[in-house]
## 1
Amino acid sequence: MTATADAPIDTPTAHDLAGLSYQDTLRVLSEASVHQHFDAFLDIAWDSPEFEVVPDDPRWVLPEIDSLGGTDWYKSLPLERQIEIGQYRLANIMKVGLQFEQVLIGGIMSHLIPMGNNRAEFRYSTHEVTEECHHTQMFQEGVNRIGVDVKGGPGWFIKVAPFLCLAGGPLPNLFFFGILAGEEPIDYLQKSVLRSGHELHPIVTRVMQIHVAEEARHIGFAHTYLVERSKDYGRLQRFGLSLAYPVVMRVLCDVIMKPTKQMQKDLDIPKDVMREVYWKSEKSQKLLRDTFGDVRMLAEELGLMNKVSRLVWRALGIHGSPSRFRSEPKSAAV
């Protein structure tokens, strides 16, 4: 059955999974995917009158918790212009999310091709791919309904994305780092927006609700997978991964969170605003650090925090205390 707003998705918690083996954990996650999941065209009322996109709808104004929406520049603009920018930015975030999901799907399939029989990892991974396919449909339909012809990620990312899919086979650790780098920032921002109480257009709110619900399982799987694989890390491999981990996180974070040059041009965003928001101001730097609290927690668990890697985290501006538990809310998050 599909999950609905009245019957939210039931994702196993860390307490539910405590003490289970890796294979048993994946079986529990698989059962959860079977019994509660979303369908892009059954669980979103696309043709409902309240989902119609109409001119001058203030629900397209970006929330203050959004990096760009919280700037004095954006808030000083006429309402019509704020709506225009809000539609573009929200549609582009969906498009970037769609592109990341496509890379994930391709990479997981590459990872599974040589896998043997009777592996719970195969079953759960294909459940996840099924859900991610629905997410790509959901994101693309959202972009289509908003009606802005956005391109998504920066040009370099679009060009290399097909090759990133190939990493799922020979470089599974780096690939799963990339999965988290794509999922964690979007998940953090969506949860922050939903917790803020800001009224957004129902298309955006419903897409966020569904994505957050199912991504909880997907992120949980990526964490569990990396913890399992970390048991076989050699000393040199662990050190190399400790340096690669924060770099992958930081580079892909910009792909998701920072407006592309094309978006800056289309929306005429001043260069001084871009410099302040990404990532020179104290407020934006705190957002950047807070986004990676769960990622730092996992790095500690994987044994990827050492004297050298901590310097890399700091140099990239994503250092700080690890989360005490997954999805721990940050005080004054942005």
## 2
Amino acid sequence: MLSRVGETLYWVARYVERAENVARLINVNNMLMLDLPKGVCTGWEPLIDIIGARQAYQDKHADYTEQKALRYLLVGSDNGSSILNSIIYARESARTIRDVMPRDVWEEINSLYYYVKDNQKEGLAKRGRFTYLKKIIESAHQIFGALDATINHDHGFTFIRFGSLIERADMTSRILDIRSETLITSDEAKPYENIQWISLLRSLSAYQMYRQEMGVRVQRADVLEFVMHSEVFPRSILFCLIELKTLISPLPNSTDIINLIEAVIKQLKAEDVRALKNGHLHNYMDQIQIELAGIHNALAQTYFLKPPE
């Protein structure tokens, strides 16, 4: 397989995964604001932090009002991680490899692009927002489902899965970092602390699986343990890392990447994540994100960044 094709498949998966993650974040934040009393919720600022765009946002916006933040997250042309831009990047990437991309997948990506672009007013309005975001999430699931069912499970599929999982692990670490850091702990908000941790789980579509694995009670230590250490929940950091190792192992010249992943897995398993509080959790999540970036860089240098002939 040409390195260009493998890299393009990798990024198609990352962009689609990113669009789905941002859609879910917006949806859950919207529900959290309805569940918490006025003046208690942290608003939309944490979502800008989760996608790592605080400085870029502040360069052009003076505040974090719902309309400004929502437009930036949904369709902001100046936001590389907006849902619309993520789908545009996925569509343009997929277009360049249509000869290896199953037709059903291309059509679904193309349809999602037009839906997001043509119905953005629905997403910005309170009444149509839930339906708009639900459609984006369902379309992302259909794209990944169609890829799993219709594309050859060769090296190209490995890069698709790798891209999706590394994006997923990165987003999980960002949600844990920002959501736990911005948790409202005032006396007024104390009765609603449980709701905030449930919101974090729902941001990862993890609430039901958490209850199956950890029990009905939702508390900080158990949430951290589940979201970081679960080996069976597909959005936990450890699960994603184990899958990344399994995926890359059959590929040639993968020894250095495997060693990197194994080192992160070993460190993560040894960490008492239940005890991580305040700045310690933030610093640890920063380190996880740096190590994920290192895995990405190693993958690119090994398989994508081929010197010109």
## 3
Amino acid sequence: MPFAATPEPLCLNGLTIAPGERVLTRLVISRLPSGTVIDIPVHVFRSTEPGPTVLLMAGMHGDEVNGIEIIRRMIRRDMLRPLRGTIIAIPILNIYGFLNFSREVPDGKDVNRSFPGNPRGSLASRVAHRFMREIMPLIDYGIDFHTGGAARANIPQIRCLLHQDAETDELADAFGAPFTLHAGLRPGSLRETAMQEGRRIIVYETGESLRLDEEGIDLGIAGTLRVLHHLDMLPETALPARPTVVCMRSTWLRAKYAGLFRSLVKLGQYIEKGQVFGSVADPYGENSVRLESPVAGYIIGLNHMPVVNQGDALVHVGRTDTTPSRTDLAAPFDEKPTKPTEVETEEDEEAGEEEAK
């Protein structure tokens, strides 16, 4: 992507930020019923040399703290001083959810299903609109940090639209997460809207909501530094310990029965077709059912909640095979089947976690 020979002033939130400046500004979104102002802190780090503008953002869902901690540590450790271009860091977008340990804003809507937003719409829509007005026009690339939800943990992974856009593929490859998952664009999501605007955003997932995942945080920081180096914005950094495993498809294995779920697998483990991955038992000691996987692949998501209902997502399997199976026949957005099934294929951005979060 070509850039101007000399960096131009950047206008954000009514401020003019010159090349070489570091600025903290706050986007005022609204007020709580108590009158307390809700604003979003935005850190801007500018080089004196021209280059791309990269967004690092977390807290789209307020209960997802790992991304917040990744950006916080990078700011605290003074790791975001670009050699060229600009870095915009937003540790928490959904301040409402953060204050209430919640995925949503108080009106119950999901900010990541509300883009491009509306200045007269719901609270989530207003947050999305302010982002689109102030931030989106400035950026070229971005990393959006997330975690699993509702006691479901994700192994560190990049989610993006693979093999359809060369720049997106390069960002995912540069990040070098343990797993890279092909994920389609969800209507109303930040990724979909950014793609329509000509911006490229990848999603990093690790851990579960309201829990810090130290390994995932470290891998997230390292991957972010590699992306910034790939864009010639930071010096060379350490390569990933091992090549990423690319999963072009994924399948959620769901509970056929309600009861107490006991997992026999771990995140990152490879399971064979027909392998027992856990059991569901009634709480009275009368019945127990072994659960066998109908597909082979890597465990990229795992339910840590022992009490499950029929149809609950238990294990997320990332698949490297290319042969279609009966599990691929399910509609990709059918997240609430009319009757319980053992498996369901999810190839959207959050791979079946919408009902879980």
## 4
Amino acid sequence: MRLDRAIDAYLRHITIERGLSEHTVGAYRRDLAVYLSWLTDAGIDDTTAVTGAVIGRFIADRSAVVPAPAATSLARLQSSVRGLHRFLVREGIEVEDPSGRLRPPKTPQRLPKALTIDQVERLLVAPSGEEPLGIRDRALLELLYATGARVSEAVGLDVDDLAHGDVLRLRGKGSKERIVPVGSFARDAVDAYLTRVRPGLAAKGKASARLFLGARGAPLSRQSAWLVIRSAAERAQITAEVSPHTLRHSFATHLLQGGADVRVVQELLGHASVATTQIYTHVSVDTLRDIYATSHPRAR
């Protein structure tokens, strides 16, 4: 099968049948475009001509690029290539998977950066008082910290997703749904936004079921949500780096520090594996040291 057609078929598969997000599909598309370009330059235009040795040379060439790609980017590239060839075998287009012996590079384990509780509280009250967009921004920030939602999940919420009172329905990766509790602070902030601000924003644009709307009535984008977070961090005079994932990291870290079971945090975050969640247990090592220092008779 022609490589360009094989890649198109695979991208349709992960979009329609697997339901991956537009952001994830876009990353796969970019990776496979690099792969296709390299194979074309090597005179390979059919899937049957791709061997394990060919893929090995491709990865070696990519590793040698200056500046070299980060280990995480190289790992994702390999994942994209493996996904393509596994798909071709499953669909009966090819008999063998030439990527079967491909091993991902070791990526350094990075501990997620979490804010302190004091920093979070300053961040949440940073949006200006009674201004409509300030009320919206406060609701967004409170909801992100209260639920541990990804930014993409928060901006993808519909008003009906709040219909269950003190719980919220989130749609995660692969369109998987999960139910998470919503604390009173977040609920009050969202209620204030729904009653005092959202009707006015909705009147400015086309009818939309989305919970969070922009100044012109269109659904709030991920990029706009990121700007809300960055602006709040600047207002709160937080010098630590604050990214779209910071409140999610802080949510998980503070739950574990408060005694929550890692399996419960896994469920709330929507992680498929508890191993993904366990990285947050390392963040609390300072707390363990403090407890040890004050509790053990021979610690000092």
